[in-house]
Specification:
By secondary structure, the chain is an alpha+beta fold. It has two domains: 1-30; 44-128, Thrombin, subunit H, CATH 2.40.10.480. It is built from one helix and eight strands; from the N terminus they run H-E-E-E-E-E-E-E-E. A four-stranded antiparallel β-sheet has the order 1-2-3-4, with no helix packed on it. A hairpin with a 5-residue loop joins strand 7 and strand 8 (126-128).
């Protein structure tokens, strides 16, 4: 077999692989746009109130406050809403809360993009810090 035959054979193989990939026949080589499950955020208990970030919907980040003894819901506040582009894979657009802590009368909440939200525990007002 001469060199021109080998080059032609290799070119044909590459063309067939490209066509197969375009037709979706090489599924193991396709990239899947799936994300990991939402982070588990541990509840924070402060002054008899348990604060939780359910992370049950990547379209909205929110915190719930409940009585630590009775588990009765006291209030809920939305920190952010996430618009979803319908032309893209939805789950990779979700944004979840990663951590919470209480400092100086504020519940400090950080999302996956390192955006910091501060919830005033007296007024429930939410402020967003710049990235």
């Amino acid at each position: 077999m001469d060199r021109s035959t080998l080059d032609g054979s290799r070119d044909t193989t590459i063309r067939l692989l490209v066509i197969a990939a375009l037709l979706g026949l090489l599924s193991p080589m396709q990239a899947n746009a799936k994300r990991l499950p939402p982070p588990k955020v541990e509840p924070v208990v402060f002054n008899g109130v348990r604060y939780v970030a359910p992370n049950d919907n990547g379209r909205r980040g929110y915190v719930q406050a409940a009585d630590a003894k009775t588990n009765r819901l006291l209030w809920e506040v939305t920190l952010f809403r996430n618009s979803i582009n319908p032309s893209l894979e939805e789950d990779v657009q979700h944004v979840y809360i990663e951590s919470m802590r209480v400092e100086h009368g504020k519940l400090l909440v950080v999302d996956e993009h390192a955006v910091l939200y501060a919830v005033d525990l007296q007024t429930r007002a939410v402020t967003k810090a710049a990235k």
